[in-house]
From TrEMBL:
<protein>
    <recommendedName>
        <fullName>Dehydrogenase E1 component domain-containing protein</fullName>
    </recommendedName>
</protein>
<feature type="domain" description="Dehydrogenase E1 component">
    <location>
        <begin position="49"/>
        <end position="271"/>
    </location>
</feature>
<dbReference type="GO" id="GO:0016624">
    <property type="term" value="F:oxidoreductase activity, acting on the aldehyde or oxo group of donors, disulfide as acceptor"/>
</dbReference>
<dbReference type="InterPro" id="IPR001017">
    <property type="entry name" value="DH_E1"/>
</dbReference>
<dbReference type="InterPro" id="IPR050771">
    <property type="entry name" value="Alpha-ketoacid_DH_E1_comp"/>
</dbReference>
<dbReference type="GO" id="GO:0009083">
    <property type="term" value="P:branched-chain amino acid catabolic process"/>
</dbReference>
<dbReference type="Pfam" id="PF00676">
    <property type="entry name" value="E1_dh"/>
</dbReference>
<dbReference type="InterPro" id="IPR029061">
    <property type="entry name" value="THDP-binding"/>
</dbReference>
<keyword id="KW-0560">Oxidoreductase</keyword>
Amino acid sequence: MSLFNRAEIIDKNFTSFVKSGNLPQARIDLPLSHTNIKPSDLVSLFESQVLSRHMDLKARLMKDDGKCYYTIGSSGHEGNAVFGKIFPYTDMAFLHYRSGALFIERSRQTPGTTPLYDLALSFTASADDPISGGRHKVFGSKKLNIPPQTSTVSSHVPKAVGVALSIDRARDLDIQERELKNDSVVLCSFGDASINHSTALGGFNTAGWVTHQGGHVPIVFICEDNGIGISVPTPENWIRDSFVNRPGYKYIACDGLNIIDLIEKSKEAESY
């Protein structure tokens, strides 16, 4: 066991808080009874979150044994499992590198997928890794419409915008052989640090510029804002203020720590 294992510390703290009932107060008063959410859906989401957390723990243990060469944990971002449930797997997803729960939950939509096994192959740099051939620890799946990305912050944003633009373009050109349906949307998730990078800003600007002129860019940008951009604090309300009045955008805020609110707001975004 390594001297300092953040995944283990997070897991112990989580278990302690649950056992003691010392849970954070919800910032949004939205009881389950006021929604159409099924309790069984919450159980499914929680299972995906727990599986993601266990993969974080297993990766660190394997690394200590010299069996895993590289780890990027998803701890703290497990709420993104909601996006794996609300958005169909036919919607292409360009994912933030802490999207374990989303990846696992989306896999439930297609029988025969093996997300945990695929991730384990990635951890061990196996040549049989279906995501990147063992070359990198990322999330990806051809069957689930998740193109593998680099872990370079925000480098996937312009690609996601390009795919979103291609949906209408392919229809206009009557291209028959294509992966995405006419009513598909593209998901693009990232952390709060990403929106300050010139690469991301170019993608955001292109999407807004096209929409402002009457074009159609069916993309859902998902910012997983935890207030820390890599190791630098993100100014309060910076994400909201950067997008709420941006031309061509519909801004939807939600509490990422409240899964009920997250589900309802995700449905709103999906139907917009």
